[in-house]
Design brief:
Layout lengths: L13 H22 L9 H14 L5 E6 L2 E8 L3 H25 L5 H5 L1 H10 L1 H19 L5 H15 L9 H25 L1 H7 L4 H5 L8 H28 L7 H21 L13 H21 L1
Antiparallel strand pairs: 1-2
Helix pairs in contact: 1-2, 1-3, 2-3, 3-5, 3-6, 6-7, 7-8, 8-11, 8-12, 11-12
Length: about 325
Amino acid sequence: MFGYVIPDCETVSVQDFSLLRAVYCGICLATKRRYGNLARLTVNYDITAFALLALEAENVTPEFGACRCIGDPRKKPYAKECGTLDRMADVNILLCRHKAVDDVIDSGKKSSPALRMLARPYEKAKAARPDEENVIASGYARLRAAEEAGETSLDRAGDCFAKLLEELMVPSLSGRDAAYSDNMRRLCYNIGKFVYLADAIDDLDEDFTAKRYNPVLAAAPDYEKGGRRGYMERHGDMLRFAVNSTVNSAIARSNALTFTQADGLLRNIIYEGLRKKADELFGADKKLPPPKVYLPRRTAKAFRSAMRAKKAGDKGKK
């Protein structure tokens, strides 16, 4: 996946930031345990958001521990091993491998470092999750067919990846009623569609230069190299409508759902994070850098002050 589904860091709370990081680290450690250290490079924030939704759908309350990471020696919380996070680690490997295959086909090359790195993990994940592999393989096959046909409709092109993410949620919905299942599936559908559209907008100049299919360029082909700003002036309204309607649909579906343990974090991601990422894409002159999820200093400072005040108040009561 890509890294477009993240919270608005300027408004995220300390508790929600800690939960996001703990689930991210939980998937990373599950990936290490199942596939080795190198495969941990595939872990991303999109699969973390999907894992949060799966935990909600399955009504699983993860246990937490503290660990150190080679990339960050500070001790930090992580979500301990559970079936949901193991499944997310497997699904992430499958998604990343199919994305790597798609990139190789687009480039006209025979292989890539990512494809070689994922060869063994992919075979193991495919054996462990054959149903999920079939869903992802079928989704990418539909997407490839749409690309080869030069699909000019953003909705039809985005539908392929969106349905893929929707179907991957199905195993988590066992035991849920029809209304909950429908809303959760459609929420995942719209998040998947947002990711697809965001990636297409982000890659405009890169795809134009390489003469690769891009649904945005197929819908409005008058792009010139380095001319992103002018292109947005001409077609920004069309693209904003497509993205904003997708975000609005995701919000509408989330409004029909009750989140428990991750309510604040998921609301932040869906209500604020998606819109902020869209604004970044429309305001950028080039491809966005890798996402950074952080806790603002003022938020951390206010939290520490509140904890000190609470501690002092507790002492005063004794």
